[in-house]
TrEMBL record:
One of its GO terms (molecular function) is ATP binding. It is a peripheral membrane protein. Belongs to the ABC transporter superfamily. It is found in: Cell membrane. It comes from Catenulispora yoronensis. This is ABC transporter ATP-binding protein. Residues 7-239 form the ABC transporter domain. Keywords: Antibiotic resistance, ATP-binding, Nucleotide-binding, Transport. The chain holds residues 21 to 260 of 331 of the full protein. The keyword Nucleotidyltransferase does not apply. Its main location: membrane.
Length: 240
């Protein structure tokens, strides 16, 4: 039913304005994309570097305004700070944590801003970062920072979570820990839109995938539908 639809995008396009210099034509990074994500569903955007995955995610989460098309997220506009944004969690590639805040302060502050309720110690425990609770962000490893970013995204169990390459830079045990939290929230009805370069993660955890190339979703469906002989048969660049 339409009540179960958390993201509905039709004909969405986005172009980056050319910087001052020789080329003045805008760079079209997302081109006429249709995409639907339902409650409790995990949708993974796949594609080579520069395909438009991050841009698509940033348009759908309301960070960049679509230049064409229609987007409905949780029944409203994704940039709506009153009715829509408090119900979503977002983990981008570079969160830029405040260097001087501790892990605990960072997550508690982001949680307060989100407007959702949760217990900071439980959330830190949940994502496996509680042993670094009093460490300042500047002292964390890259993988530890990613876990803090993830903690902020899942704080208060949002209805919809956006994750941009959530497991890039994580060691295998941390990747597995992150996925077990995602699967748990998903079984509670949380929807996910994420990007990844790890096909085996998409194969194991995504309900549907979209293969992006040059700003378009060229094929979408279950990974099984898109591959006959396993994920190694995926071709990102369609034959000319
Ligand atoms: P990756 O796998 O490397 O993260 P991606 O699929 O997420 O790539 P995007 O980051 O969305 O791709 O980039 C899509 C296109 O838009 C690329 O051609 C990129 O060069 C361009 N682009 C991205 N960010 C900007 C920007 N801030 N200004 C201008 N062009 C940009």
């Amino acid at each position: 039913s339409t009540q179960d639809t958390v993201i509905e995008a039709r004909g969405v396009s986005f172009a980056y304005q050319a910087r001052s210099g020789s080329a003045k034509t805008p760079h079209v990074a997302v081109r006429d994309v249709d995409l639907t994500v339902r409650r409790g569903e995990l949708y993974a955007l796949l594609g080579t570097n520069g395909a438009g995955k991050t841009t698509m995610l940033e348009v759908l989460e309301g960070h960049r305004p679509a230049m064409a098309g229609r987007i409905s997220v949780l029944g409203g506009d994704p940039s709506d700070r009153r009715h829509v944004r408090p119900r979503m969690g977002i983990m981008l590639q570079d969160s830029g944590l405040a260097a001087d805040l501790t892990v605990r302060e960072t997550v508690a502050l982001a949680g307060a801003i989100s407007g959702r309720r949760d217990d900071v110690d439980k959330v830190l425990e949940h994502v496996g970062i509680s042993h670094r609770s009093r460490t300042r962000a500047a002292q964390l490893s890259g993988g530890e920072k990613r876990r803090v970013d993830f903690a902020m995204a899942i704080w208060g169990r949002p209805e919809l979570v956006f994750l941009d390459e959530p497991t890039t830079g994580l060691d295998p045990a941390s990747r597995e820990a992150l996925w077990s939290v995602v699967d748990e929230l998903k079984s509670d009805g949380t929807a996910f839109l994420l990007t990844t370069h790890y096909l085996e993660e998409a194969e194991k955890h995504a309900d549907r995938v979209g293969l992006m190339h040059a700003g378009s979703i060229r094929r979408q469906g279950t990974l099984g539908e898109l591959t006959e002989g396993g994920v190694s048969t995926i071709r990102f660049v369609p034959p000319e």
